[in-house]
Design brief:
Elements lengths: L6 E5 L4 H12 L3 E5 L13 H12 L3 E5 L6 H15 L4 E4 L14 H29 L2 E6 L2 H4 L6 H21 L4 E9 L13 H11 L7 H8 L10 E5 L2 E5 L16 H12 L10 H4 L6
Parallel strand pairs: 1-2, 1-4, 2-3, 4-5, 5-6, 6-7
Antiparallel strand pairs: 7-8
Helix pairs in contact: 1-2, 1-8, 3-4, 4-6
């Protein structure tokens, strides 16, 4: 019971990864605010059913849960998620920023509307909910933020400029929260999940390579992500902050942050010509692959 007497708010918890996290948090003793407006994969529509179903399943199993249908993209809605936790369960101990949508498009076809929609839910949503919880975390000198990033942001992916930018932005947000809130005993970490869900189901599968990747993803169930989220939300993770983890079935990955790879000094100063003639030839063997995507970094099947 790693979360006994704790209160956890989980966004996007009506389906997929978020639902599995909510169920496991409840099994570990947490009272759970299940946030999900029930929108489609691209953010369209709305349905109270998914959030309420997760709540009903938790209560049936003997746990405590409450549904919240607000959009994390709305600061007032995000505030309501945290306020529901405090008003109904007395406190807030952890926030899991899992909510997300996808509106994939190759770069030259990506619309401003689709850019803003994805940034609003992922990056602004993580900001809004985290900001709402921060005063409570500071007052009680404890708390945990668990943010969801993606290898699309950490490594890169085709046709996902909006999603990639949002997900890498979440890493920057988490890092700064971890540094700023350390004095208050608050932790902030990221998880990059590999799991089959409505969102990953939209990945193109036109070439044999793409089809093989999708088939691998189908073997990665959402419930495998939940144990790490529960651990990071719990007091057992004291001292674990400002980290980026990945989960692929039974494999957990720790990602490094960008660090200098090579450096070169020219005492007379650099000119454009010297950069072309001296610097780039020296740096080129250490260049990151220009066409690298997540599948190139993780080409093997997890167990």
């Amino acid at each position: 019971m790693m979360l006994e007497n704790k209160v956890v708010a989980i966004t996007g918890a009506g389906r997929g990864v978020g639902r599995e996290i909510a169920l496991l948090c409840a099994r570990h003793g947490a009272s759970v605010v299940v946030n999900d407006p029930g929108v489609g994969g691209g953010g369209e529509g709305g349905d109270a059913g998914p959030a309420q179903q997760t709540v009903d399943d938790i209560i049936t199993a003997g746990g405590k849960a409450l549904a919240n249908l607000a959009s994390v993209a709305d600061p007032v809605g995000a505030q309501s998620i945290v306020e529901d936790a405090v008003q109904h369960f007395g406190r807030i101990d952890a926030v899991v920023n899992n909510a997300g949508i996808l509106r994939d498009a190759i770069w030259h076809k990506l619309s401003l509307e689709d850019w803003r929609a994805v940034i609003d839910v992922h990056l602004n949503g993580a900001f809004n909910v985290s900001k709402a919880a921060t005063p409570y975390f500071r007052e009680q000198n404890s708390g945990s933020f668990v943010h969801f990033t993606s290898t699309s942001g950490l490594i890169g992916n085709i046709g996902q400029a909006n999603y990639s930018a949002a997900k890498l932005g979440i890493v920057g947000l988490s890092q700064s929260i971890a540094l700023d809130m350390a004095r208050a005993g608050v932790r902030s970490n990221c998880i990059a999940p590999f799991a089959w869900s409505r969102m990953t189901a939209s990945i193109p599968a036109e070439t044999p390579e793409q089809q093989a990747r999708v088939e691998r993803l189908k073997t990665m169930s959402a419930d495998k992500i939940a144990p790490l989220a529960v651990y990071l939300a719990s007091d057992a993770s004291q001292g674990v902050t400002n980290q980026i983890f990945g989960v692929r079935k039974n494999e957990i990955v720790l990602f490094d942050k960008p660090r200098p790879v090579r450096s070169m000094t020219k005492t007379t100063g650099w000119t454009p010509e010297a950069i072309a003639d001296e610097l780039i030839p020296a740096f080129r063997p250490s260049f990151a692959r220009a066409d690298e995507v997540s599948a190139d970094v993780f080409p093997y099947d997890p167990i």
